[in-house]
Amino acid sequence: VIRHMIQVLVIHAEQEEIIKVPAPILSRVYQTLSRGFVHLLSAKKIRDTRYPFPYAQLIAVLMTLLSILTPLVMSTLFKHSSWCAIATFVPIFTLYSLNYTAEQLEMPYGDDANDLPMSHFQQEMNSSLLMLVHEFSDHVPHIGPRAKMEYEELKNS
Length: 157
Fold this sequence. Notes:
Blueprint lengths: L1 H14 L7 H26 L4 H25 L3 H26 L11 H15 L18 H6 L1
């Protein structure tokens, strides 16, 4: 809806000659709006596409089996109990850590510490849009009378 409103405003401004730009530049505006919309849809796909439930269940079952069978196997391989504990703890801890990391990466949008800072992204976008409507944003820059133009003056300053 917002994209359509922006396109209507651009068309209206172009017809009323509020903005006078060549057609290639105007088509670039529409292309940029379209690309932004495509990226928004891609972000929505990431949010909406869940990890396959049977695969998640299979991982949970296999991690449980690993937690049960690894101590048994390590106790037959190692006679000393401390080596057995280390050889059991390290692989199980590593795989559970990878599994929990994958769960965090599965859903990048939200308020957790590992999520993308969406509110910060929105504030930056709003700030950039506000700069476009600022009264000094579309003034053509010029050089003041006190500006140093010569190489030697610039070098010595």
